[in-house]
């Protein structure tokens, strides 16, 4: 597999090259350059499978790379290397884009390369990342669905039901999506999203769709469509603080 390194710091490029040689021998580095303009030329010349791209570089952000290519030219994957803030990291997670925090950890590097080798590359994920980075509040998410990615508006998710390594996303239009991501992953993903809360070992709910909390049978939340979701005992008080109880 051919890879290209784009980073304005020589030391960072050397360190990444050494890590790839030691931990990812299946990768051949075809070029390493220090800015986006040279990176674009190197991509066109070497046709790499994978690009390791620093986001913060003088002159251009790494996110602008796609602006230099037509749709049919984008046949390479990208793993970003970054020292970005926590908000931007959340944008990466929402967009299903791999990133490596500097200084790069060898285990995280090998895991990112393995994910790239297994997953379908999506240009839409990069577009979503670019949009999410520019927004004050993240509002779309990319989630794995078989050999593809689903792009969903967060506000359209009514609730999520976990089942082992998979989760069912129940949408406001009545559609259910089964995705290969466990509920714990969604809980971590939405920790900054105040409306989506873990209420049970098997459920997360969008509080915007709740109408009542019922104390009977250990506690449950009623949604606008009439669905009742169980609430675990340790979450009951927390839920009561989050919603307005509608008395029946």
Automatic annotation (TrEMBL):
- InterPro entries reported for this sequence: CheY-like_superfamily (IPR011006), LytR-like (IPR046947), LytTR_DNA-bd_dom (IPR007492), Sig_transdc_resp-reg_receiver (IPR001789)
**Modification 4-aspartylphosphate occurs at:** 54
Taxonomically, which superkingdom? Answer: Bacteria
> Which keywords does the record carry?
Phosphoprotein
Q: One MF term in GO for this entry?
A: phosphorelay response regulator activity
SMART domains listed in its UniProt record? LytTR, REC
Q: The Response regulatory domain covers which part of the protein?
A: 2-117
* PROSITE patterns to which the protein is assigned, alphabetical: HTH_LYTTR (PS50930), RESPONSE_REGULATORY (PS50110)
Q: What is this protein called?
A: Response regulator
Instruction: Give the species.
Output: Flavobacterium stagni
């Amino acid at each position: 597999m051919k890879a290209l390194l784009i980073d304005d710091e020589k030391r960072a490029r050397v360190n990444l090259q050494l890590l790839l040689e030691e931990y990812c021998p299946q990768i051949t580095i075809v070029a390493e350059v220090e800015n986006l303009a040279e990176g674009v030329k190197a991509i066109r010349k070497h046709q790499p499978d994978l690009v390791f791209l620093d986001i913060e570089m003088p002159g251009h952000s790494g996110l602008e790379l796609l602006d230099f290519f037509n749709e049919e030219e984008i046949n390479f994957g990208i793993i970003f290397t970054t020292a970005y803030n926590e908000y931007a990291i959340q944008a990466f997670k929402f967009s299903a884009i791999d990133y490596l925090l500097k200084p790069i950890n060898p285990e995280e590097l090998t895991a990112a390369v393995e994910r790239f080798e297994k997953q379908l590359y999506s240009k839409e994920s990069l577009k979503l990342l670019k949009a999410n980075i520019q927004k004050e509040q993240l509002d779309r998410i990319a989630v794995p669905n078989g050999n593809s990615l689903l792009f969903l508006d967060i506000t359209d998710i009514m609730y999520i039901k976990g089942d082992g390594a998979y989760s069912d996303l129940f949408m406001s239009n009545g559609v259910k999506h089964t995705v290969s991501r466990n509920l714990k992953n969604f809980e971590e993903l939405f920790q900054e999203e105040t409306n989506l809360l873990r209420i049970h070992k098997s459920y997360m709910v969008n509080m915007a769709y709740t109408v009542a909390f019922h104390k009977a049978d250990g506690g449950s939340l009623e949604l606008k469509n009439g669905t009742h979701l169980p609430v675990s005992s340790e979450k009951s008080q927390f839920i009561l603080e989050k919603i307005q109880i509608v008395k029946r």
